[in-house]
Amino acid sequence: MALLVQKFGGTSVADPDRMRAVADHVARTVRRGNQVVVVISAMGKETDELLRLASEVSSTRPGREMDMLITAGERKAMALLCMALHDVGVPADSFTGSQAGFVTDDTHTNAKIVEVRPERVRQALEAGRVPVVGGAQGVSGSGDVTFLGRGGSDTTAVALAHALGADLCELYTDVSGVFTSDPRVVPDARKMDRISFDELLEMTANGCPKPAMRSVEYARTHGVDLHVRSAFTWEPGTLVTKEEQDMEQAIISAVTHDVDESKITLIGVPDRPGIAGQLFRALADHSINVDVIVQNVSEHGVTDISFTVPRSEYERAVAIAREQAPALGAQDVKGDPDIARVSVIGAGMKSHPGVAATVFETLAKEGINIEMISTSAIRISCIISEDQVEQAVQLLHDAFDLSHGPALVD
Q1: How far is it, in rounded angstroms, from Cα 311 to Cα 308?
Q2: Which of 41, 58, 82, 403 could form a disulfide with 153 if both were Cys (CB 3.0 to 4.6 A apart)?
């Protein structure tokens, strides 16, 4: 008997027909002799609708009340799924995040899990019942309902799988697995059978929308194997697991892109110690996340500092940079909100020379200018003009022939 945690996203349970389809799938899994714990998101666009209502009712929207409101969507979905399970002969009990033992910090709208105490979930399993847990929610140390943020149901599922010692955490979505690139941009993108935690973490950090990056990070830290698959076709998807030393590695596994990027440059900054620290401390104090940073070689004692921030933070970041410019001695501040990032990712590039050369040559042949470059051991990212990013993704996907399977290194 295997213990499985199955998470179903909002599109998977968007209406009564989908809810019944999910109940049938859970029932089949149970009848094959498995124990199942279900984690469920709010139905369809329910969270968006609740956010819209809040904006129409209030301009202040206190975090405590927003969390109480948003988590109502998951509570509604978990109760309905339990009813559907009872109809197909599977006894089931619904649990809120707090009832399932999720203790979080006090940060509203984007809380972090501090501890999971799943005693009631275990009791339900021992009684032969299917626990259905509302995703993305918990309770703070002060007793308030908290919301884990967008994509939090994935994190709930992974954390619960770890706490229960589950054999596998299955993340059901509206896609059939993890692809070598966005199929909407690259029609012949290939679904991968297997990928490492590190590779998927780089993908989710660089534009791959599913699963949520926090959930992949949690899975990697705690060694929770994931299976990303479709709730519409039920076909096998992509297994996400740790990288084995004797495993063949793809030189390049995927090409991702992210258009949620903007660039800011401080021109003519004095090249002396402490300047960068002062600038980025000011941004950090306003909770602005900085990604790529490039500082040019100093000429005549001055230099330029460029960095990227999420596009939603662009206006605030420009304002802070201009506010800091006189104290920093900068001559000017320029911004560009119309950029994007394209990334190639693969564990095999650690031991395979020439990947960077192929990336740069491929883009250069089509006149795509690279404005900034960022790398890790298994990733190369290029900041380019937004209007060229889809072309760049297609070119790089073809350059590494990802549609026909990965080139492997021992």
Answers
A1: 9
A2: 41
Q: 3-state class of 31 per DSSP?
A: helix
Alpha helices in 206-301 (DSSP H): 213-222, 275-285
Whole-number pLDDT of residue 249: 67
SS3 184: coil
Task: Kindly report the average pLDDT of the chain as a whole number.
Answer: 94
- Note the pTM of the prediction, 2 decimals: 0.90
Q: State the pLDDT confidence band at 296, using cuts at 50, 70 and 90.
A: confident
Cα separation, 300 vs 315, whole angstroms: 31
Structure-token pair, residue 96: 């809120």
Nearest-angstrom CA–CA distance, 227 and 150: 20
Nearest to 35 by CA among 26, 23, 45: 26
Residue 268, token pair as written in the block: 């003519």
pLDDT number for residue 410: 45
Give the bridge partners for 7, in sequence order.
39, 171
3-state helix, strand, coil in the chain (%, to 5): 40, 30, 35
Triad 401, 404, 405: Cα angle to 5°: 90
Rounded Cα gap, residues 394 and 293, in angstroms:
26
pLDDT one-digit tens code per residue, 178-197 = 999 999 999 999 999 999 99
- Residue 243 confidence (pLDDT): 76
Percent of the chain with pLDDT over 90: 90
> Quick check: 373 pLDDT over 50?
yes
The C-alpha atoms of residue 100 and residue 90 are separated, in whole angstroms, by 19
Secondary structure element (H or E) that encloses residue 112, with its range: none
Question: Please, which residues have CB within 8 angstroms of residue 244's CB and are 6 or more apart in sequence?
Answer: none
Cα distances from 126 to residues 35, 120, 129, 131, in angstroms, run 9, 10, 7, 11
User: CB under 8 Å to 200, separation ≥6 — which residues?
Assistant: 178, 208, 211, 216, 240
For residues 226 and 171, is the Cβ–Cβ distance under 8 A?
A: yes
408 burial via Cβ count (<10 Å: 0-12, 13-18, 19+): exposed
DSSP 296-315: PPPBTTEEEEEEEE-GGGHH
Q: 350 versus 246: which is more confidently predicted?
A: 350
Per DSSP (E only), the strands in 176-225 are 194-196
β-bridge pairing 35-40 and 130-134: parallel
pLDDT band at 105 (very low <50, low <70, confident <90, very high): very high
| Residue 159 DSSP symbol | H
Q: What token pair was written down for 31? A: 């009848």
In eight-state DSSP terms, residue 242 is: P
